[in-house]
Design goal:
This protein is α/β, with parallel strands linked by helices. It has a single domain, classed as Rossmann fold (3-Layer(aba) Sandwich), CATH 3.40.50. 34% of the residues lie in helices and 25% in strands. It is built from six helices and eight strands. Strand 3, helix 1 and strand 4 form a beta-alpha-beta unit.
Amino acid sequence: MNNYETYQEIEINIDSIKLKGNLRIAKNSKGLIIFSHGSGSSRLSTRNNYVANLLRESAYSSLLFDLLTPEEDVIYENRFNIEMLTKRLVKVTQWVCQNEEISKMPIGYFGASTGAASALGASVYLKDKIKALVSRGGRPDLAMSVLDTVVAPTLLIVGGKDYQVIELNKLAQSKMKCICEIKIVERATHLFSESGALDNVAALAIKWFDKYLTIK
């Protein structure tokens, strides 16, 4: 596995449903990063796929998957059902741990927007299975009830012009007892659509995963 690189479109069987996913396996992979998307997004997110490709260049495999089926996504409230999305992420992570091709890789989470809340919640449930966590423009405050029990080293990346979310991330950080840092990407707004902003996000994430996720 560590001598080649693949890109696969896969289906993940969870209970009675099938979730579509994109699995990138990097050469000499240092770990697997599972993405948890924000509301209304999917495995096709251009921003998360851009970051995933940069992670691959630094030898990190990744899994981007649809947290909701097309039928579930039609129900708008499901997109903000953090408890449901957290359980879904847990089950997909457990699927990863049973998949022979990728089960040996250390696992990290990359959560975007509301997906950061589900990533934090899932990391609490899975404990030491999740080695590190990165949030991009995240809403960790939506997981406030579990923040003091998060153990995975957590990096909160926020755009410098995303003023309200900066304050929400600072509030969340004050509740967390684990290793937790906030990094501000100057001049970036909530979606990090400015030139070079996502490159900065990826660079920060790679540095964090290199420090906390990789096997020493």
